[in-house]
Amino acid sequence: MVNDTTRLLGLDGLIAERVELHPDGSPVVHLSTNDEQARCCAQCGIRGTRVKGWVLTRPRDLPVAGRTTRLRWCKRRWHCDQPGCPRMSFTEQVPQVPARARITVRLRQASGAAVADGNRTIVQAARDLGMSWPVVAAAFIAHAAAVLPAEPEPASVLGIDEVRRGKPRWSFDEVTQSWTTTVDRWHVGFCDLAGGQGLLAQVEGRTGKAVTDCSPSAAPSGFNRSRPSRSTCAPCSKPPSARQCPTRR
Ligand SMILES: [Zn+2]
To answer: Higher-confidence residue: 48 or 241?
Structure first.
């Protein structure tokens, strides 16, 4: 039965059984499953009929009324009796909390939006929402990729600038018997100065070779496009020539 607490929480498919207070004063919400689709096998789609056991999960979620809210979802593990299905058993899942997810979908989306639309840094958004920065970075990339076009418009005026980022790292090359830079402390950013598209790409290094290797398709005439692209876009680790860097705005 749906109660007021369940409506307040707003997690479809889950029902709030009771709320306790953690020693630090934050609420601990105990949840149960309230969705028949939750016990459908993710592999074959057949509904489970035999319970294998119970699992207690603690997915992290958005704060409620400004307070960190701890979720405790006691869900069932089902046998999959469908002949030929490779999945022997599976746990219940709902749209906001997929199987093996440690955070809710809405928390992940909120962290990406906080960076992309709220102008928060990745580290700050991670601190505010109690998440790790790699997870927030991935959420930001997913958020940006969904709203940015696949290809930017050609840039009539290409801006190039260098930025210092992190510490350099080197490795010893046994063939040449010399040290080579594996992580450069410098990055070069490309931006659209006239079209308002913001940052187009960011590549590692600040040499002329690093610039020409990037070879952005949006470069103005005269920009060297003949060299193969070997650099990668540092924020998203994709080739800049793929024009998928979600950091541009
Ligand atoms: Zn199955």
So the answer is: 48
Token digits for 98? 């997929």
Indicate the pTM of the whole model. Answer: 0.69
CA of 44 to the centre of ligand 1 (A): 4
DSSP code per residue over 146-172: HHS-SSPPPPSSEEEEEEE-S--EEEE
Taking CA atoms, 30 is separated from 69, 121, 146, 161, 182, in Å, by 11, 32, 34, 52, 49
What is the tens place of the pLDDT at every residue in 153-198?
A: 888 888 888 888 888 889 998 888 888 888 889 988 888 888 888 8
Q: What is the whole-number distance in angstroms between the Cα of residue 59 and the centre of ligand 1?
A: 24
Q: What ranges do the domains of the chain cover?
A: 1-102, 104-147, 158-242
Q: Is 133 left (phi over 0), alpha (psi -120 to 50) or beta?
A: alpha
Distance 241 CA to ligand 1 centre (A): 41
pLDDT tens for each residue of 207-225: 888 888 775 554 444 343 3
Residue 18 contacts by C-beta under 8 Å, 6 or more apart in sequence? 29, 30
Task: Please give the distance, rounded to the nearest whole angstrom, from the Cα atom of residue 83 to the centre of ligand 1.
Answer: 8
For residue 71, the CA-to-ligand 1 centroid distance in Å is: 27
